Amino acid sequence: MHLTQPLHKGRRERPDALACVYAERGRSYAELVSRVARLAGALQRLGLETGDRAGLLGLNSDRYIEGLYAILWAGGVVNPVNTRWASAEMAYSLNDCETRLLLVDDNFLDFLEPLRAKCPALETIVYMGEGEAPTGTVDYETLVAESAPAEDALRSGDDLAAIFYTGGTTGAPKGVMLSHANLYADALGTVAATPRPARAVCLHAAPLFHIGGLGLVFQLMPRLGTHVIMPGFEPAAMLELIERERVQETFLVPTMLRLLLDHEDFGKRDLSSLRYMIYGASPMDAALMDRALERLPGVDFMQAYGMTELSPVVVVLPPENHAAEGRAKLAAAGLPINIAEIRIVDDEDNDVPTGTVGEIAARGPMVMRGYWNKPEQSAEALRGGWMHTGDAGYVDEDGYVYVVDRIKDMIVTGGENVYSAEVEDVILRLPQVAQCAVIGVPDEQWGERVHAVLVLHEGESLSHEDLVAHCRGLIGAYKSPRSSEVRHEMPMSGAGKLLKYKLRDAFWEGRSRRIG
Amino acid sequence: MHLTQPLHKGRRERPDALACVYAERGRSYAELVSRVARLAGALQRLGLETGDRAGLLGLNSDRYIEGLYAILWAGGVVNPVNTRWASAEMAYSLNDCETRLLLVDDNFLDFLEPLRAKCPALETIVYMGEGEAPTGTVDYETLVAESAPAEDALRSGDDLAAIFYTGGTTGAPKGVMLSHANLYADALGTVAATPRPARAVCLHAAPLFHIGGLGLVFQLMPRLGTHVIMPGFEPAAMLELIERERVQETFLVPTMLRLLLDHEDFGKRDLSSLRYMIYGASPMDAALMDRALERLPGVDFMQAYGMTELSPVVVVLPPENHAAEGRAKLAAAGLPINIAEIRIVDDEDNDVPTGTVGEIAARGPMVMRGYWNKPEQSAEALRGGWMHTGDAGYVDEDGYVYVVDRIKDMIVTGGENVYSAEVEDVILRLPQVAQCAVIGVPDEQWGERVHAVLVLHEGESLSHEDLVAHCRGLIGAYKSPRSSEVRHEMPMSGAGKLLKYKLRDAFWEGRSRRIG
Predict the structure, then answer these.
(1) Which of A21, B15, B24, B404 is the most exposed place for a label (fewest CB within 10 A)?
(2) ipTM for the complex?
């Protein structure tokens, strides 16, 4: 199993078909493979040897995908740099896995100075932007134009393909080592669990430095489809691209879906080509799902649950659990995919009974090789041959896996348990509200009180009184927010996950919080 | 990737669901895994060590599937013995790969004497029949009942899982070595190319000693479906089982489909559960396809092309190429599956142009590890990293792969080329005809003449004059059979392939025949 295999297939089976579309550029599979092979030749000339790490720092683009495959083709290991990080964090990840070569686009040129200062091993910068290559960098297009194509190194199986640095809410970031077999097997397993046609047109809107976004590249490439790429998520541009390129499938996070549905262009664009929406990073709330099903009736929604260490998908919630009859399972992450085993374990790694919350652990060909240079943390995470996700969850009597972010996300107020998700669902029914996070904050009287953080639609306003009145009509008074605040935006992770701990931390600094 | 993974999943995710149904016996996943683990423990006690070969000689049964997985669970390598072989051929395969342990059912007890005589290394015979264990054998059920469960050896990746002996029309049979990754990757790739729901009820009617039949076991097990097993194909019994067990999918060869459609019970059974029919070994003729589509309107037909050396599937013809619009491609084998690369090469391994006939070669994770103890033949078959199938074929401008058995199957008569398949299609429209093979036989006047071998439906008759009159109405006179014969049955391979060379050989003995 080598990740470059689809390129050979594409060159042979669909040479003239569109492989990548970016802005006004479109390239066929024949062009893609030719450019990848020549860039790979150039990278080897620049000193990239088998197993060497090479970084990618840029927004989504056709060159990002070419660069990714060129590194693999040359025998290298990809280090996709988190674009939301500060230069110190980037430097940490580049240094940690000794990345000596970095491809960078126009959006991150300002980082070059600090990165060079902090990364003594960083020898070569390839400029993959649209303008003139800055001093001290090598021009991407010149390399492609002037290099002889390399032979595919045909790395495969347990050979390392990528190191992804996890954001890690605490401690130093860890480099997750994924092999060719890890990523290829998971792409296959995910496609089998979320049947989609070969040769589809797919939109990459989620960031490709994150494995959620990149996973879709690996899922589509063997199907020889067309990759439509946008630099980053922007609702108006995404709606326009779906219409223009007749996009059939995409991956997003629920927040992105909400922004799409809320956008004034939504009703003006022809979205009839859209058939498959895979979402991840967080579950879909019922109110949002209702709106999405009503406004996108031709679309199959599927949730994918996993993590970087799992390449990334191990559980999928199929379309039938988003609509009428199967709807009772909407809160679930889904069923384990064909190639994944899931266990729920207690603190001593014993199985817990059905319905009991414990730590979610996974086994299968998608489990990472380990953390770069961290044998102890690797052994700990992979003890007994199982990846311990650190997520709390349970399995119901039908085999559905539930992730209870809720354990951390449960508010204990006056002795009553309040589940944030339930309150959020209710608040999101208010037409003024764009985003909402319900957290527990310290309270002299109640221990914790229910606190709502809101982002409103532009031009809207909402009083705390109106918020409470709305909630009291639908849920118990103790569940209704006792306090609330309106913000311009929410703290989000690079993967588009709402970082609730950042909201909480401001309130809890210096205090200890009881965890459910 | 370890082939036993689905058992762990099944025990965890669907312990109470039916795993295997055979005759009046049904066993849950929990029972299946418990029996497999205990049988594996017994096999280890009987001397089976990691990497040792163990043979399976029997008709299809639940124990055949248990035995298969028990051998893998114990760390062994399965040698599924071809049940259509003479004892000398069986002995050859057992000796060739040093099989010291053999599981045998009631149908092959007569073979034990000659096998023991010819296979000095054969130390242990496990009796997996329904009666009392014969002298000199160990009783399967006793082993299961009295043994402690073994730990799964968790063999995986490049570790050998099975050795299949190919019938080989010439020369000694070759042991095709397939790894866990070979078989698991191909099962995944095939499922992705032939989308079918998880947890389906599947009927195993094709022989499990053949990789075509066994492949379906590997495709269904990770989906945790129900395996309905019949000892061997028999149309009335198959129709009854489909009705009784609400079977949703099955694998068969076109000949079997014809016998089903022709059977008097066909219209009497409720076949409405049937949704997916995968067929292989030979293409579907258009006349048969028409009847099947009309009489089984709810069924998706898919052709799978491959060979033992390819674990086995590399090309799939999807359902849309069996019905109205896509029908033009019905003669094709299909499109390469996601994980398979296909090339057509000339005698010097150069690619030939689109539409040109050459040898079909394949690359991907499903390509065998080689032939057992035949390094030269392995190197020859796998030269350049590609499996050379020995099949002649071409790829059309839409990327569809065609297998032209036709090169060998073309008749040159009076300077005109006649394609057997075309004549066969025409003859099969006659309601009297059950099976038909058109071959070239030596002729003083024409060099070769078109000769038809027919099997008629019971109670039917057909004169040569009527046959010719029918053909002349539909195809050119030179294509119509100049001679014909009626037989009771056709020579068939273990895989259900019509062995035309056996028909031809009788005519061509001592002569040389011009090929293509």
Answers:
(1) B24
(2) 0.78
